[in-house]
Amino acid sequence: MKDLTKYLTSAIAGIGLFVSVATAKAETLSGKVIDALTSQIMNSFPVALDRDTTLTDQNGNYNFDVPVGIHHLKISDNITDYFNYEEDINLTTDTQKNIYMIPVKPVDTRFYSDFLGKFKYMTKTDGSSHSGNTKIYWWRDEFLPIPVWYNEDQAIQIHDQDIAQKYFDGNDSAIREWENKSGIDLFQKVDENPTRGIKIDYSDSNSRVGMNFLEDKTPQNFILYISNTGYLYSLDKLRMVFEHELGHCVKIEHSPDPNDNMHQPALVDISQNEADIVRIIYTLPNFIDMSKYNSIKSRNAVKDWKKYE
Ligand SMILES: [Zn+2]
């Protein structure tokens, strides 16, 4: 359990502001506060609703009884280990709402002003994209682990058995690298071409990644083409290229930071920050609105990035 006692003083100061209003009908807004990276519940953590502040209990629960209507939920400016979270909630009935907190982490400030900026840039959750104006949707949790099919016959047809085997080994270790660093069971190797999942093709042309969407915006199928250019014969480099393409498959974009695997070209293994971005994506509820998370610094992140484009 994270030690949150340092938040107590400021939060208790806020409790004094609460004035109860007598109304005919009060509804309950309640839920848990959860660390989006570690999945740990957070106790003694201050949650503010309008001018009232309460602390979560030992099970991470907060609870407000308030009249129906619009209320402003906020995790306070006084928290420095996590990005602020705030949201207007139109309360019409008893409502359960868990709040997932994204931790502040160090990043290379030459490329991003903060971790949330890096997160927002690499997931394009603001709806913008340097490679097109499409909103990025990630795999919904009911589809995890994502089936991955290697088109082995094709690889063996195009290349000799040794080279083909190196592709499969590179694939295997890239999958392990993502899973080990993110701590999530992201992928599952399957024996047949899945109707929904990732299909890896091997070719002599350029490497490409494609995808289709179902109507509910769930990624249906990524088609990954891995090319047979000279540098791919090193198993280490093969692994890094597969890590990079699988990163796209789990919905993260290029990074300008050369310490990241998603930098182009991929010259290093997955960084812990990248793995944490993926972990947070797959820990948060589906399609969460990232605009509710904020920090003053992150507003400048994309602008900062343009300097290095
Ligand atoms: Zn790429």
Question: What do these coordinates show?
Answer:
The structure is a single chain. By secondary structure, this protein is α/β, with parallel strands linked by helices. It folds into 2 domains: 5-101, Immunoglobulins (Immunoglobulin-like), CATH 2.60.40; 115-304, Collagenase (Catalytic Domain) (3-Layer(aba) Sandwich). Helices cover 25% and strands 25% of the residues. It has helices spanning 8-15, 115-123, 152-158, 161-182, 235-249, 272-281, 301-306, and strands at 26-35, 46-49, 52-55, 61-67, 69-75, 84-91, 95-96, 99-101, 146-150, 187-190, 197-202, 208-213, 219-226, 293-294. A hairpin with an 8-residue loop joins strand 5 (69-75) and strand 6 (84-91). Helix 3 crosses helix 4 and helix 4 (161-182) crosses helix 6. The protein is elongated, with a radius of gyration of 22 Å. Mean pLDDT is 80; it is low at 8-20 and 126-135. The structure holds zinc ion. Zinc ion is lined by residues 244, 248, 254, 264.
Q: In a few lines, what is going on in this structure?
A:
The chain has 309 residues and is an alpha/beta fold. It is 25% helix and 25% strand.
Distinct ligands, ions and cofactors found in the model: zinc ion
Low-pLDDT parts are 8-20, 126-135
* Helix-strand string: HEEEEEEEEHEHHEEEEHHEH
Q: Enter the CATH topology name of the largest domain.
A: Collagenase (Catalytic Domain)
Topology of helices and strands:
Elements: H1 8-15, E1 26-35, E2 46-49, E3 52-55, E4 61-67, E5 69-75, E6 84-91, E7 95-96, E8 99-101, H2 115-123, E9 146-150, H3 152-158, H4 161-182, E10 187-190, E11 197-202, E12 208-213, E13 219-226, H5 235-249, H6 272-281, E14 293-294, H7 301-306
Helix pairs in contact: 2-6, 3-4, 4-5, 4-6
